[in-house]
Design brief:
Elements lengths: L10 H29 L10 H6 L1 H31 L3 H23 L7 H27 L3
Helix pairs in contact: 1-3, 1-4, 3-4, 3-5, 4-5
Length: 150
């Protein structure tokens, strides 16, 4: 038995935007890895202790980079699920929302990696606009499907 899946025109753009999240995660992982040794944080520890970070600026920067990466991982399920749901009816909205979130994540990470956690805010705000569009878009798609009896 075979099945056919029909996807809307432009669905590939939504998939491309999702694929770009992999690039962000790999980039974040590499900057965390490069910061680990100068910070003196040995495996399997994820973070430098408060005393270490107060004594060593590299430890503070490492913690900031690690936190940016960890926060991205925490939010990824929301981004993936809402992008896929939104793309069922509005693939360009999904691609744009996810792409905006990715751009925001880059700014968020660069700001956080400066060692001043407050610098993450600008990128964070940009990313939240992308996430909001995905939340609203996926809510609309689910509502439309429920109303259609699907």
């Amino acid at each position: 038995m075979s099945s056919t899946i029909v996807v809307p025109a432009g669905f590939s753009y939504a998939l491309a935007s999702l694929l770009s999240t992999v690039g962000v995660l790999l980039w974040q992982s590499s900057i965390v890895g490069k910061a680990r040794k100068p910070a003196g944080v040995l495996y399997p520890r994820m973070y430098a202790e408060k005393a270490e970070q107060e004594a060593n600026k590299d430890a503070l920067i490492y913690n900031c980079k690690q936190r940016a990466h960890q926060n991205t991982l925490e939010v990824m399920p929301v981004i993936v699920i809402t992008t896929l749901i939104t793309s069922l009816e509005h693939p360009l909205v999904a691609a744009s929302g996810c792409g905006l979130w990715v751009l925001g994540r880059i700014g968020y990470t660069i700001g956080y990696a400066s060692g001043d956690p407050k610098q993450r805010s600008k990128g964070g705000v940009i990313g939240y606009f992308g996430m909001l569009s995905l939340l609203l878009g996926s809510g609309k798609v689910v509502f439309d499907l429920i109303m259609a009896g699907i």
